[in-house]
C-alpha cells in the first residue's frame, strides 16, 4: 500500500509538472505571436487562432517524452512490473495517453482543415472595403468546404485501407467488405486517424526539408556571426545619400535653362528619388537603433549569443550524424521498401542511440535530452521560416518580420509549424527506434546456468532490454509508435525524406557560411509598407 501511495504521489507530481509546462507553453505562444504580429494590422480572432495553433503544436510535441516516460515508469530496472502496475492500471495509462493523442490529433485536423483556412479566407475577404461581414463569412465557408472535403476523404481512405488480408482467399466480395468493417470496428478509428495524420506528416516532412534543415544551419551561424554595427551602417548610408543626391542634382541641372528632360533622364530621376526616400528612411531607423537601450543590451549579451550558437551547432551535428547513420543502417539492414525500411534494432550505432541508454541510468536525463531535441527542432523551424519566408513554389507570399507580420502570414506560420511538429515524432523515431518504442523497459528471460557445486543446470531469470522479440505481455509499446507505422508506404516516403533533409542541411550550411553578417535593420529597405513612425528596434 505504501509503495502504491508513493507511486501515485510521483504520478501526481509528474502531472503537476506537465500542467506547469502547459502554462509555460501558452505564455511563450502569446509572447511569440505578439512579438511578430503587425501592430497596425493585428486582429483579435487571428491572434487567438495563431496562439492556440502554436500551443497545440508545442503540446503535441511534449506528449512524446511523456509517452516514453509512462511506459518506462511502469517497470523496474530488473524487468519486473511495479507493484501498482497491474494489467488494469497499465491499460488505463495506455488508454489515457492514446486518448491524449486522439484529442490532440483531432484538434490538429480541425485547425488545419477547418479553423485556420476559415480565418485566413475571412481576412483575405476583409481587404475589400465594400464587402460586408455576412459576405466575408459565406466566402470563407465556401473555400473552407474544400478543405473539409479533403479531410473527409483522408479519413474514409484511412478507415477502409486493408491493413490485413482475409485468411480465406476464396472469400466473396461481400465477405471482404464485411472484413473491412470488422477491422474498422476493432481499431476504434485508429487507422482512419493515423492515415489522415500520416498524410499531414508527409506534408510536414516537405516543410521540415525546406525550413527546418536550413534553420538548423542558419540559426547557429547567425548567432555566432551577429549583425553589422549600426554606426558603421549609418556611415555607409550617409555616403550613399550624398552619392544619390549628387546624381539627382546632376540630372536636374540639365533642365535649368527651361529645356524639358528626356524620357530616359525622367525615369532615372524618378528611380534616384525613390532610392533617396528609402535611404533616408533607413537613416531614421539606424539612428533610432544606434541610440536605443535595446541595442546596448543586445551588445552586452553578445558573448552569450556566441555560446548559444556554438551549442546549437553541436546539437545540429549530433542530430545530422545520428540521422545519417540511422538511415544508412536502414539502407543496409532493413527488409527494403516493401516494409517501409523499418528496423527494430540498431546494427550501426549512432551517437544519440548510444547516449540515450547511458542517460537512462540517471533519471530524468534521457527525457531532458529528448525534450531539448524536440524544442531545438521547433525553434530551428521557426528560424528557417523567418529567414526564407513563406513561398508558393517561386512566388513569395509573405515575409515574417518582428512587429510587421500580417495576420495571414501568422496563420501560415502556425499551420506550417503544426505540420512540422507532426513530422518531429518520426524524426526522433528514426534516430532511436528502440527507445521510442519501449523507453527504458526491461523484461525477464530464462537462462540455464551450470553450477559447479551441484550437478545439472539451474534456471535463472535475467533482465534484457525490450525489443521486437519481447513477449507482448512483458513490454508495453508507446502509443506514438502505433500512429507512426500503420502504413508502410508512409514510412518509405519518410526514409527518402530523411536523405533529402540531410542534403538540404549541407546546402544550407554552405550558404550560411558564405553569407555575410545581417544588416541591423534587415528588411527595412524591402518593405514598402513600413511607416516612418514605426521604428525597427525589433530587428536588432
From TrEMBL:
One of its GO terms (cellular component) is endoplasmic reticulum membrane. It is found in: Lysosome membrane. The chain crosses the membrane at residues 12-33, 45-66, 99-123, 143-163, 190-214, 306-325, 367-397, 409-429, 487-511. GO terms for biological process: clathrin-dependent endocytosis; gastrulation; insulin receptor internalization; protein localization to lysosome. It is a multi-pass membrane protein. The keyword Hydrolase does not apply. One of its GO terms (molecular function) is clathrin heavy chain binding. The keyword S-adenosyl-L-methionine does not apply. It holds the Pfam family LMBR1. InterPro entries: LMBD1_LysCbl_Transport, LMBR1-like_membr_prot. Keywords: Cobalamin, Cobalt, Developmental protein, Gastrulation, Lysosome, Membrane, Transmembrane, Transmembrane helix, Transport. Interacts with ABCD4; this interaction induces the translocation of ABCD4 from the endoplasmic reticulum to the lysosome. Interacts with ABCD4 and MMACHC; this interaction ensures the transport of cobalamin from the lysosome to the cytoplasm. Interacts with INSR, adapter protein complex 2 and clathrin heavy chain. Belongs to the LIMR family. LMBRD1 subfamily. This is Lysosomal cobalamin transport escort protein LMBD1. It comes from Saimiri boliviensis boliviensis (Bolivian squirrel monkey).
